[in-house]
Each structure stands twice: as C-alpha cells, then as structure tokens.
Amino acid sequence: MAHNWDDLRLFLAVAREQSLSGAGKLVRLDPATLGRRVARLEKALEVVLFVKSPQGYALTEAGAQLLERAELAEQAMRKATADVGGQSDQLTGQIRIGAPDGSANFLLPQVCARIAGDHPGLDIQIVALPRVFNLSRREADMAIAVSAPEAGRLTVQKISDYHLHLAASGAYLAAHGPIESVASLKEHRIVGYIADMIFDRELDYLADLGLGQVALGSNSVSVQGHMIQQGGGVGVVHDFALPFLPGVQRILTQEVSLKRAFYLIRHVDDQKNHRLSRFADILSSALRNEVLLLEAKA
Hints:
DNA-binding; D-Maltodextrin-Binding Protein, domain 2; nine-stranded mixed sheet; sequence-specific DNA binding; two-stranded antiparallel sheet; alpha/beta; WH_DNA-bd_sf
C-alpha cells in the first residue's frame, strides 16, 4: 500500500529516537499527534512497525525492513534536493555518542562542534559516563571505547592510538623536588582511578607501575587531571589532555610511556544505516586528526 514521504519522515524520526517525545522534537509535532500518525501508517501498511514499552519504541522485523527502504528514500530525496539547489548532502537528525570522559572532555567537544558547523541540521549528543555502554539497549547510537569488545552483536572500528605519560604540576615539583625514578614515586602522593571503579582493564595504569595506593582518586580522568594541575600529586595523563592543563608537565618520559587505542563501537544492525555510517566515518577521521594535533602540542 502506498505511503507518502511525510509518513516516512515521521517514521524515520521515531525509529531513530525510539521515543515519541524525542522524535517529536525533531519533527516539531507533539507526541500525541506523532503517535496517531504512526498508528495511521501501521494501519495503512497493515503491519506493526514498533513494539511499544516503557523503555520506548523498538522496531519490529517489519519496522526494520521499512527503515531500510525509508533511508534509501531519504537519501534519494536529499540527493534530488542537492542536485536542484546545488547544496552538499547534509546529515540531519539526532545522533547520540557514548564516550569515556577523557575523550568526552578533551576531544569530542571541538570535534563535534566542527561537525555540527558543517551539518547545521544535525543534533549531536555526547553522553560521558565512566562505564561501557550497552548498545543492544540503544543507550547510544555509537560508542567510543578503550578496548574492543569480544561479545555482543557489535561492529568494532579502530579510531586511533593515543599516548599517556606520568605528569605533575610545576608547582608540585617545585615543592617536592625532581622525580628521578619510578621507584621514588612511592614517596609522592599519587593521583589515579578509584580502584574498584575501574571499568576497563586498559585503564588500570598504576597497577602496571606497582603503584596501588592512590592518595587522591576519582572515577573521572578529567577530575584526575585537574587534581594534578592543582598540585595534588603525580598521575597518568593523556598527552592529548595536556594542552588543556596549563602548568602540568610530563615526567619520567624515558621510563614510562603508555599507548592505548580508541575504538568506535556500533550495533551490527546499524551497518546498513547510511546516515549513521557516514557520521561514523566523519567522526573517526576527525577524532584521529584531533589526537595527532593535540599530542603534537603536548
């Protein structure tokens, strides 16, 4: 049975936001009206497109099939508009990124601001949480992680390596004297993660250095960086964060140099989603370049 583009546009919004309230903000309709439009589309197609629950609107198998076709129609519509108006293909709608707070604080703000500038119709949400995101529950459209997951229906794309070093503020070093060896760190206050809140083994930097006792701890790497900046002690800092922490300097660089990687994690069902795939490519490239730029300034 035929359906028009406006119906598909509303369907796409609900499918992507998985809620009437979120979709309503994108298409500028109140949730009740949008709900009636979705129900009308389901009646016209004689299929159930969504499973409704307190958690939101989840696509049925029929809904997933329509999503694929609707996205093709959306691409064709955008291309036709661009061909007529001479405008470049623009990303639109809302995309939510889950990220550990290191990348969320020091990389994503400027990267996403630039992407949003290139795509004015795009709404980007950054959810900064010190834990692994559950994409199966659709907590986010994609997530940045510091290790590649080995289970789940997920796709993994390496974004970039990044580097970390021990660091301290100039004021701390002036007050406590130069630090000449890893062994001597036991005589200093250590800043680091709260041990029982380390959500990924890749973040357990201090254990590898034999430094289990943390005098100033936080589950946030951003908070740790500011503790170090305030003269709280010595800790591990991302090289890309150093330009944002004036007065903090690397120490023992010949003895301690850590390398980790960022990965972009997506749900396997989103592989055919042209919009998310294009955004993922833009985001990965921009993050890779930003890491290189900031590490060069460290």
